[in-house]
Amino acid sequence: MNFTSAEEIEQFRLEQRVYLDGSCFEEWRFTFGFVIPGSTNTWQQSIESAGRGNMLDASTISGKLMIETAFYNGELPIARTIYRIYYI
User: What's the CATH architecture for 2-44+54-85?
Assistant: First the structure.
């Protein structure tokens, strides 16, 4: 992810939740830390899959899966997005 902030962010972090049929079944928390005002930054995280045989079938979860990503400065919310996932 690339981002720019006009203002200082003391404790930039994000929380990501994965919902299936409205129930949260995975949650991740990532911390970037201090963001210099006026800077452009790159943030990359790697998440490994559970592996073949431990994955949910795409045709079963298509349209039932939602991913929520929320950005914070400490505990102060900055932005939030929610996407419904369809596999085609």
Answer: Distorted Sandwich (2.70)
* Half-sphere exposure at residue 64, Cβ-oriented, CA atoms within 13 angstroms: 12
Per-residue pLDDT band at 83 (split at 50, 70, 90): very high
**Rounded distance between C-alpha atoms, residue 85 and residue 63, angstroms:** 6
**pLDDT in the model for residue 35:** 95
Half-sphere exposure (CA, 13 Å, Cβ side) for 19? 12
- CA dist., res. 34 & res. 82, Å (int): 25
DSSP-assigned letter for residue 56: P
Domain range summary for the chain, segments of one domain joined by +: 2-44+54-85
Cα distances from 85 to residues 11, 23, 59, in angstroms, run 29, 15, 11
